[in-house]
């Protein structure tokens, strides 16, 4: 379905949870080093439960390696610094959905290079700085599924339940 990209994630539980989201929605998880933990850490596996073994995972040594791999095809960044909202983004199957880390977000390089492809999730609370990374990714993935519901539903096994 989609390509979820984490740039230098810091919290193993978030990454485990994101891996679980990816498995449940046939998304590929791309992780760009450096990361703040080991992928073998028990917290990653605990949050990902037994889903982790089914995860389509791709690892990159750095941002440049990732960018040369994806060749900028349908790449969207999600950041609190964007001016456009998520519903203005046309997410297609195979799009690259890029997220920064928990404490500092995306590197400035992404903000400069992909300014036209930057989107944010609305937050109404006056004292809110940002959402939890795994929650933000859930919102974006399910918005992408909503946008592509016709093609998604035609490939979805009729016997399975959505809930």
Describe the structure.
With 163 residues, this protein is α/β, with parallel strands linked by helices. The chain has one domain: 3-Layer(aba) Sandwich (Alpha/beta knot). Helix content is 34%, strand content 17%. It is built from six helices and seven strands. Strands 3-2-1-6-4-7-5 form a seven-stranded parallel β-sheet, sandwiched between helices. Strand 1, helix 1 and strand 2 form a beta-alpha-beta unit. Helix 1 runs parallel beside helix 2 and helix 1 packs parallel to helix 5. The longest helix has 15 residues. The radius of gyration is 15 Å and the shape is globular. The chain starts with a strand and ends in an 8-residue tail after the last helix. The relative contact order is 0.19. The mean pLDDT is 88.
Shape category: globular
Helix and strand content put the structural class at alpha/beta
Radius of gyration: 15 Å
Count of the separate structural domains: 1
Main sheet summary: 7 strands, parallel
- In CATH terms, the superfamily is SPOUT methyltransferase, trefoil knot domain
Question: What attributes does this structure have?
Answer:
single chain; 163 residues; alpha/beta; Alpha/beta knot
Short characterization:
This protein has helices at residues 12-24, 42-48, 63-70, 108-113, 133-147, 149-155; strands at 3-7, 28-32, 56-60, 75-78, 84-85, 96-99, 118-120.
